TrEMBL record:
UniProt organism field: Mycobacterium asiaticum
Highest rank taxon of the organism: Bacteria
Keyword set, alphabetical order: Cell membrane, Membrane, Transmembrane, Transmembrane helix
Membrane topology: Multi-pass membrane protein
Protein name: ATP synthase subunit I
Record-linked InterPro entries: ATP_synth_I (IPR005598)
Region of interest: Disordered: 141-163
Amino acid sequence: MTTPAQDAPLVFPAVAFRPVRLFVISIAVTAVVTAIAAYTGHPVVGAFFGVGLLLGLLNALLVRRSVESITARDHPLKRSMAINSASRVALITILALVIAFIFRPEGLGVVFGLAIFQVLLVASTALPVWKKLRTGAPSGLETGPGGVLTGSEGMEERGTGDD
């Protein structure tokens, strides 16, 4: 028997999210982009690009905070997570587009910064996980913040004909 989607528990795996590392990487990328933009005669684009990176970092921090607060409840609802995510992304996107419109064309750097931050976020979280999987996955389940199960659940041995 399967559990209906609305009755299924919310489970979020812990992610190798390091905001300080992402902040330092964002500063370095902003410096490089600003130097390149200054060389082409548009240094303000680099500054707006940095604002976009910082907005992306703010979004990531808010995601972590909302996941921790929602999963800490006795009965977390997927609907509250979806509404939280949609409203947060909408607000940050509208803010970025307003900046891009008011300070056009240089303000478009904010939108590019947001996009590049997503690439940095995925790379900075996926690479440590990938490295851990290559060196040996954890043998059991671990409990992360808020009692969230992490580890190798659902990672049973599979044969070549299982696909």
